[in-house]
Write the structure tokens for this entry.
Amino acid sequence: MYVDPDVVEFISTNFLPVRVHVREQAEEFKRLGSRFEAQWTPTILLTDPEGTEKHRLEGFLPKEDFLGQLTLGLGHSAFAHGDFAGARRWYDDVLERYPGTDAAPEAQYWTGVSEYKETGDAAALAATAGRFTDRYSDTSWAKKSAVWKS
Amino acid sequence: MQQTRELQWEHDFDSTLERARREGRHVLLDFSAAPM
């Protein structure tokens, strides 16, 4: 996965990548694995610049799903820092570039929440719930948004 | 022929995090059992 040119480009552009090998760096894995509660490989964490975990992947994913999750994680990080416009850009990226992945319905949910947090307009939530009737209607994110239907 | 670009992994989390703070970058931390 990490040899794919698109993956290399995305990670190099958006992250400082650190690999800790469970056997070759056993002490470091023990220390960081305990700190981040990593109990399986691969476990991939996205942290913000302060080292706070913002997203976690456990297990291997196909390229599109992997990139979708990384993009989603950047959205979650922006959201957590109150950058709702930035979060929406990342979530919209997920919907545009990786619409067939599990990250997409989650991004659709959170882009609505981000718009609401940015504008204070509850119509953003109702509109998001409406989108779930057209797309990703059989996902847990559709169920979560159903309460917003006007 | 297309050149293959490799990911430049760091292996020292603490020093990489210091750099991340300085540069305002996110960190991707991969706990791996793959052959190095």
About this structure: The CA atoms of residues 9 and 34 of chain B lie 13 Å apart.
